[in-house]
Design brief:
- The chain is α+β, with helices and mostly antiparallel strands.
- It is built from five helices and five strands.
- The strands form two sheets. A three-stranded mixed beta sheet has the order 3-4-5. Strands 1-2 form a two-stranded antiparallel ribbon.
- Helix 5 links the parallel strand 4 and strand 5.
- Helix 4 runs antiparallel to helix 5.
- It is elongated and about 80 Å long.
């Protein structure tokens, strides 16, 4: 899904860039007097064109509609960029001809959180799988008690919890970003 969004973003940005470049080139050529204009001091619209725009009942609503359309598409693009890329489900069966069996990503991250929270000195663990369901990335936030040995906690997470997750998902190269927060009183 992420690759599809990346491709759509690249195409949309390339088309927008080309349209803006073409508009800029046309405005430059018109301003230089190379496109049937009287030069930079001449008005952009003739008297007849200004009269048509002033008396036309449909022109300004059309311009407003097109502007609103561009605004909506722009807002949709911003919302798509800001939307978290959390993975909601993971494929269990790689061969789609045998069916489409999926596993909830929340169940997987919940089991990982439970395992890490069972470690001595860990106050809380929060995990998210991001990027894509086929090639997930792990974002892990662990809150440790103030008296916990940070290196030992991190070593245990890296040597036990992460290998368990990687083995379960059959993703030996699963990227993981671990953020440790220290200073919470032990339970």
């Amino acid at each position: 899904m992420i690759r599809h969004l990346d491709r759509a973003n690249r195409i949309a940005l390339a088309l927008t860039g080309l349209l803006l470049l073409a508009g800029g080139v046309l405005a430059f050529l018109y301003g230089c007097g190379l496109l049937d204009s009287a030069g930079p001091s001449a008005p952009l619209l003739t008297v007849a064109e200004r009269h048509y725009a002033a008396t036309s009942l449909w022109l300004w609503p059309l311009i407003g509609f097109v502007g609103a359309l561009f605004t909506v598409f722009g807002l949709l693009a911003v919302v798509a960029q800001l939307r978290p890329d959390d993975v909601r489900s993971l494929p269990v069966e790689a061969d789609r001809s045998k069916g489409a069996t999926t596993l909830s990503a929340a169940a997987v991250t919940g089991a990982l959180e439970d395992e890490i929270e069972s470690y001595r000195g860990v106050h809380q663990a929060r995990a998210r799988l991001t990027h894509s369901s086929r090639y997930p990335h792990l974002a892990l936030r662990v809150t440790l008690a103030a008296d916990t040995e940070v290196r030992m906690a991190l070593d245990r997470i890296e040597s036990e919890a992460l290998p368990h997750l990687r083995d379960f998902l059959d993703q030996p190269g699963l990227p993981a970003r671990i953020r440790l927060h220290v200073g919470v009183t032990d339970r």
